Amino acid sequence: MTTPARPLDALRIKFGDKVQENISLAPYTSARIGGLADILITANSADELAEIMAVIWEQGLPYIILGGGSNVLVSDKGVRGVVVLNRAKEVEFYNGDQPKVRAESGVIFSNLANRCASKGLSGLEWAATIPGTVGGAVIGNAGAFGSDMSDNLIAAEVLTKTDRTQWLVEKMDYGYRTSALKRNAEKAIVLSAELRLKNATKDSVSVKIEQFSERRKATQPPGASMGSMFKNPDGDHAGRLIEAAGLKGTRIGNAEISPLHGNFFVNHGETKASDMRALIELVQKKVADKFGVKLELEVELIGEWNV
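Predicted structure:
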């Protein structure tokens, strides 16, 4: 057997035309911002995601996994290596006295919450306004309206370089917007998650989702953004601190700190990632100078950045 001349050739041999070069990542992010990926490949199932990762790890290729594209800011210079677009979307429901759902990691979380509602299954109403994927929610312990992933997760199927196994929720060691997976230096991929549900009625679940949606619309801006930019510091809210620092409505280029909610930065069109980064640094400096609080990013910076 002939050894591939380049590590990238191994991906091409295995996946053919699914391997694309020099693809803009902006359409794949909720902020609609970002430069080119050297390589983009789409995984349409958990098994295919595992196959792609096996080749990437074997060849030692740099990579990132991109799900719904929320909570990320991709640099103008783009991403070197491979971007794996996670579109693994199989969903299985299990009925009974203790209903549950198994969803692959590329499933959009808000869509899953609404599917549960259509079946009269309760428990994920809080997730109906979460823009990201199930996999991202598992890793980041996504939450809203007083609930988070730790309340629902039973177990996740996790892939590492050495095995593919189930992690019970206790192993996740969840904290505020973090988990053992997020903190661990060893790279691990969430393939699917099994979530706890409750029997209810379609009407009761739908009403609760509508209430949460109306609350979200009243407090968060429309348009292209990354979601909450900063984590809430202990005992306070990032949005309140940003507003108190007089920064709501501040704009650099086409990037703006929302006048509606200070913790949301909006892309008004053709925005550069560098302008968003400049707003981030401005906010961190002003809030630190005025209140002595160092705001920590909830959004992940991806790609090549000048530091």
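Summary: Residues 273-291 form the longest helix (19 residues).
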